Amino acid sequence: MKIMPLERRGISNSRIVFGCMGLGGDWAGNPLTKEDYITAEKAVEAALSIGITMFDHADIYKRGNSETVFGQVLKNRPDLRDQIILQSKCGIRFQDDQNPQRFDFSKNHILSSVDGILGRLGVEHIDILLLHRPDPLMEPEEIAEAFNTLRSAGKVRHFGVSNMTSAQMRFIQNSLPEPLVVNQLELSLARLDWIEQGILVNQKVGSSVNFADGILEYCQMNDVQIQAWGPLAKGKFSGGATEDAPETVKKTAALVQKLAAEKETTPEAIVLGWLMKHPARIQPVIGTSSAKRIVACEDAVRIADTMTREEWYALLESSRGLRMP
Q: 126-131 and 85-90 as β-strands: parallel, antiparallel, unpaired?
C-alpha cells in the first residue's frame, strides 16, 4: 500500500489511530473510578500490541476525563510518550448556566484549551492539534496567531482540522505559514455520502447527497491526511446484524462475514480494510474501548492491500442497497 500523507511528512506511520473518546467513564464528568483507569490501560496496551502508535483525543471527551485517564497511563509508562503520536482537538464549548453550546476558534480559547489538554495528559507538547468543528465566527488571522504562539512555545508541532470542507480549509490555510496536515471526517460503510458525492454527478438522485464537493480531492492534492471517525459504524456490520436491522444492513453484514471467513480474518478487518483501500490512504480512528475488539482490527492493513476491486464494489453496492448507475 502506498504510504499515507502523515508518513510522507515524517509525522506518523500508524495506519490506524486509536480514538480515546470511549475512555474516562461517563459524559457527566463524574469522578473517575479504578475501573476507568484499568479500562484505559487495557485499551492502550491492546492498541500498542497491534502496532497502533497514534492516539486521538479532544478536550471535550468525557469532559476532559478521557485525557486524564490517558495521562495516568503515560505517568505509569514514562517511556511511552516518545513512542507515540498524540493528537487532540479543541473548539467546542458545552452549554453552561449562562451560555449556549457554541464553537470557539478565538485565540484565547485555543491557547487556554491547549494548556488544559497538556495539563490533563501530563505532557509538554502534543504532536497535532485539530480544530474540532467549524466556527462560523472564525477569523483565519486570529487562528494563525494562536497557532504561531503554540508552535513557538513548543506546545504543538502540527495543526489540522476536523469536519471541514475544502473551502473552509483553504480559508484557514491562506493565513497560515505551515500546512494543515489532517482533516478528520465521518466515513464508513454506513456513511457513504463521501462516495456518492462523486459517483452521482449529473444525476437527479445526487442532489440529495449532503457531502461538500471536493474534500477528498483537495486533501489528496495537498497531502492532507484524511482520518475517518466512526469507521466501524458501531459494529453495525462486524458485530452481527440484529433481527430488526434494515435489509441492507443484514445483507452487508452477511457479506462482511463471508469475506472474513474466506480471507481468514475478522469482520472488523474487512470493514476497515474496505475503507483503507481508497486511494486517499484513509486513516481510521477506531473508538472502541474493548481490548478484544481493538485486537480484532489488527489485520486491516493486509485486507486493504489484498481486497480486490470487485470485492470493494460488492461491499459498496450492498451497503447502498443500490446498483451502480
A: parallel
The enclosing H or E element of 120 equals helix 107-121
Dihedrals phi, psi of 131, to nearest 5 degrees: -80, 120
- From first CA to last CA, the distance across the chain in angstroms is 29
* Residues recorded for the chain: 325
Q: State how far the Cα of 197 lies from the Cα of 17, in Å rounded to an integer.
A: 26
Active site residue 61: yes
Query: Quick one: average pLDDT of 289-316?
Result: 97
CB 64 within 8 A of CB 30: no
Write down the pTM of the prediction: 0.95
Task: Please give the grid coordinates belonging to residue 45.
Answer: 496496551
Cα 313 to Cα 319: distance, rounded to the nearest angstrom? 10
Q: Specify the amino acid at residue 112.
A: S
- With a CB cutoff of 8 Å and minimum separation 6, the contacts of 231 are 187, 188, 271, 272, 275, 284, 285, 286
- Give the dihedral of Cα atoms 290, 22, 191, 267; nearest 10 deg: -10
Give the tens place of pLDDT for each residue, 185-216. Answer: 999 999 999 999 888 876 776 667 778 889 99
Catalytic residue among 37, 61, 218, 313: 61
Measured between alpha carbons, how far is residue 175 from residues 81, 138, 215, 255 in Å?
A: 31, 12, 19, 47
Question: What value does the mean pLDDT take over residues 119-125?
Answer: 98
